[in-house]
Amino acid sequence: MALSEQEVLAGLAEIVVEETGVDAADVQLDKSFTDDLDIDSLSMMTIVTLAEEKFDVRIPDEEVKNLVTVGDAVSYITSAQA
Amino acid sequence: MAVVVTGLGATTPLGGDASSTWEAALAGRSGVRTLDNDWAELYGMPVNFAGQLAVRPDTILTRPETKRMDPSAQYAIVATREAWADAGSPEVDPERLGAVVSSGIGGVWTLLTAWDTVKERGAARVLPMTVPMLMPNSPAAYVELEVGAKAGAHAPVSACASGAEAIGMAFEMIESGRADVVVAGGTEAAIHPLPISAFAAMAALSKRNDDPAAASRPYDMGRDGFVLGEGSAILVLESEEHARARGAKIYARLLGVGMTSDAYHIAAPEPSGDGQTRAMRFAVERAGLSLNDIVHVNAHATSTPVGDPIEARGIASLFGDHTADVLVSATKSMTGHLLGGAGALESLFTIKALQDRKAPPTINVPNPDPDLPISLVRDVPADLAPSGDLAAINNSFGFGGHNVALVFATP
What we know:
The complex is a heterodimer of chains A (82) and B (411). Chain A has 82 residues and is mostly helical. Chain A is built from four helices and no strands.
C-alpha cells in the first residue's frame, strides 16, 4: 500500500537527519536541499540512494537535479510508488 | 628549524585518550581480548582475539560523522580533536598548517561492506560516499578538513611503518620550511574477518586463543606471532620558533628521522637487520647526537619468532658497549599491533617516557629469548635518569622492507 505524502516526508526526514545532522524540524516541504539545508551534491546522492531503498522506488540520476525542495522529493517519491 | 611536540591524542585498545592509554601502559595492562562476535565460528578463522578500541568512536562522534567516515578516519578524528585541544587549539595561518596521517591498510571496512552490498543488493545500493571513505588518504583528508590545513595533506603508506613515516614526513615539512605546524600520526581499523584471515594465512598472527591477554609476547621464548590491534595516535608537531612565540607547552623535541629500505623481500625482514640499523644510525646522526646519548628504544618488536631477534641484534650491534644502558620497551605486548597506527602510538609512548622519565614495561615475557642481547624492560616501568637531557628512538618496520627510526628528546 502506497504511503501518504506525510508518511514519505517523515521517512525522508529520518534519512536527511541521519545523514546530515540537520534539525528534524527544518526538514519541511518548502525547504531547498542546497540553499536551506546546506546539503552538498554527494550527500544528496546518498539521500537519494537511501530513499530508493527505503521507499522501493527508482529515482533516475537525471531526475535528481529536479528535486530542489524537500517537497519535490516527497511528491516524486509518492507518485513513483507502485 | 627545530621541531617540537606540542599536542598528543590517541584512542587505543588501552584507553580512549592519550593519558589513559599511557597510564594503562605504565601499569602493564593488556588491551587484547577475545572478539565479541562469532567470526571464528562463522568463517573458521584460526584467531578469535584482537586489541579492540577501549572506547568506540560512535560514543563520541555524531551519527552523520560516523556515516561519512570509515572507522580508520573516525579514530584519527577522535585522536586529532584531543591532540589539537591539547596543543591549545592554536591559531595558525592555514597555508602554514599541514596534515600527514597514514593508514597501512586503508578503508577496508568500507571497501568490503560495499562489496557485500553489490553482491547482496545490487550496484544501485552502493552509497556515493564509498570512494571518499575507502581511499587510504581519507584519514589525512578528514584531518586536513578538521583543522583547516592548507600547507599540504599527505598519507605516506609503508605497511606497519606508515605512522612513523607520517611523523617523519611532517618533521621534514617543518624542517624544510613548508609548514609551521603539522598534525601527524597514524590510524588503523582492520579488525575485520578478511585481514585477520589474510594475516593468519601467512602465519603472522598469534593463535593463543585460550589466553588472549598473554598472546602478544615480544622477545619471549613462547611468542608465536603478532596480535592485531586498532586505533590511532596523533601528534601536533610545530617549529620551535612558532611554539615558543605562542607560549605553547612543549612535550619533547623531534630531532631526527632515519628511513631506509631493505630491497630484500616483500614481507620478510632482511636477516642481518642492516636496513633497520642504518635507519637508527641515520636518525641519530640527523639529530646531531651520538649513539651514547640514546637511553631508551621503543622497539618495533611485534612478537613474531623471526622479526624480534633481528631488531634486537641490530640494536646490540649498533650500540655496542652502550647496549646495556639502552632500555628497550616493546609496548605491542599490551596494545597489540596497530599496523599503520603503531609508529604513531609508539612515538607517543616514547614522548611520554621522556616526559615522565620512565620506560614502559614489556609484559608477557616470563622466558626471555636468551639470544637477545638487549636490556629489556619487563613487567614494571624502569626509571630513566632523573635529570639531564634524555633522547630515545622509536623504531617501526613494515612489510616491503620499510624501516623508519625517529629520535625524540626532552625539551
